[in-house]
Amino acid sequence: MTEERPTPETPHIEDVVEASPQDERVAELIEHTIDVPVLAEAVEQQEAADAADTLESLAEEEAADVLEQMDDQAAAEALAEMQTPLAVGVVQDLVDEDLGYAARLLVAMAPDDAADLLQEMPVRFREQVLAAMPLGNATALRNLIGYDRESAGGLMTTDYLSLRSDMTVSEAVEVIRSASIPEGLQHLMVTSSDGRIEGVVHVRDLLLGGREQRIGELMKATVKAVRPGVDREAVAREFARYDFSMLPVVDLDDRLVGIVTVDDVIDIIRDEQTEDVQKTVGAGAVEAV
Amino acid sequence: MTEERPTPETPHIEDVVEASPQDERVAELIEHTIDVPVLAEAVEQQEAADAADTLESLAEEEAADVLEQMDDQAAAEALAEMQTPLAVGVVQDLVDEDLGYAARLLVAMAPDDAADLLQEMPVRFREQVLAAMPLGNATALRNLIGYDRESAGGLMTTDYLSLRSDMTVSEAVEVIRSASIPEGLQHLMVTSSDGRIEGVVHVRDLLLGGREQRIGELMKATVKAVRPGVDREAVAREFARYDFSMLPVVDLDDRLVGIVTVDDVIDIIRDEQTEDVQKTVGAGAVEAV
């Protein structure tokens, strides 16, 4: 039987500091064609951050045309990686051209990224696109938009999965299988029926636990968390200090309202860096030259 | 049966931006006592980064005395979080006082952290402590010390777990259970018997897979990786761009030589930030005041 299993894919190492074959293909297409469907198909194969670079290199309406031809998920992820003012321009173009598609893209996006875009959009566009979404998504996004961008609440996403402490591992596995949680999520929150945090459980401990074990036995009941109003740079410092991969955000009743993930924290630290350098330069160095 | 399972721990939310009860206890002890065993026991209860702050507030010999009374693992983690020059001073004290303990601490530490300390130690101390270690650990550390600190090789750790593609999930679970890999590790490398990377598998996919499925069927055969000589700031940029949680480091034969993890990358980005601000200030602003 071992001999008969399908031949696995040939191993392939991709050197991350070099341009990928997908990026080279897109560069070549942009130089030689303006065939939107062909370009859209190629951009779909790029990593989201690289697809965002491609879209940023196009005119706003052209970028909107390419996005419209892309698979929803790939388009949403690329849009989320674009610089905010450019992405906002593209979304506004889409709202005018194909409102339903604009709404679908924002729904397909991580909620924190969608909220960032909506916060930067003129109210007219924002309300149009929110009205075109399923009510549940619109409500969740309206809620996220309500938090100050500079706070933990403005940094968090609502894209988490919570389990109940009386579930068995088998039941939790089914919940995880059916939810499309981001691949990187390794700590799952355990909450009561009224949304209070009861514990946190690591995916690895679910793997090592017995299939009939209860989540309550595998979880840790002491949970580090942060309040929504905390400044996001303070949140970033805690991540750096304690090597968190994620941190739950809880209200004053210890109800889970979102999670902050390490990939967003890296962006904060880099933004902070740019700001600090600019402040320092602005404060004297330029005049001193 | 559900009713008879042991009562779970009471849920407890720890606000990360506030001082923990453990930190308050240590602060009180330092103010009122110099009883080393009592202090050591309290420091053991702190998070590693906080324990490091405590040790940094003590005189070098006092810090060494406290470490000697702490559990090996807690002591190693605290030492790894201390500022390098202070940690080096403490290790040198330990080498003179209790060489075996100094060696045990460095072995208990994450290999990349131990290598950082050894790189900064005078050769006499370094050779003494390496000679007091099990040969396997000493060889791995000598190898890590050989990489430029500013490169991916200098940033990586050898503390990873690799699986074989013909293992079943059940067999992999046993390997994971018996290895004490860091909790945060969610991507496991799949290698051939000669150390070449064949793929990467996510802990979550092991959980969702059947117990008799082969790792080869669950892994992804396209692996993003970096070469050991790449500058560590370039590595940090790739992490920020593509939201990696870890990245394997491979030699020119595609053999796995280590992994870089996101928590170390955050430190690099913060260091880089401090350096840049200092450079900018040094270049003009200070003179302009």
Uncertain residue ranges of chain A: 283-289
Major protein interface? A-B, 78 and 78 residues
Give the structural class of chain A: mainly alpha
CATH fold-type name of the largest domain in chain A:
MgtE N-terminal fold
**What is the total number of structural domains of chain A?**
2
Based on DSSP secondary structure assignment, what is the total number of beta strands of chain A?
7
From the spread of the alpha carbons, the general shape of chain A counts as: globular
Task: Describe the model.
The structure is a homodimer of 289-residue chains. Chain A has 289 residues and is mainly alpha-helical. Chain A has 2 domains: 21-146, Alpha Horseshoe (MgtE N-terminal fold); 162-267, Roll (CBS-domain), CATH 3.10.580. The first copy, chain A, is 57% helix and 11% strand. Chain A contains 16 helices and 7 strands. Chain A has a 3-stranded mixed sheet. In chain A, a hairpin with a 5-residue loop joins β6 (246-250) and β7. In chain A, α3 (48-56) packs across α5 and α6 (84-97) packs across α7. The N and C termini of chain A lie far apart (74 Å). At the A-B interface, β1, α12, β4, α13 and β5 of A face β1, α12, β4, α13 and β5 of B. β5 of chain A pairs parallel with β1 of chain B.
Give a short synopsis of this structure.
The structure is a homodimer of 289-residue chains. Chain A has 289 residues and is mostly helical. In chain A, 57% of the residues lie in helices and 11% in strands.
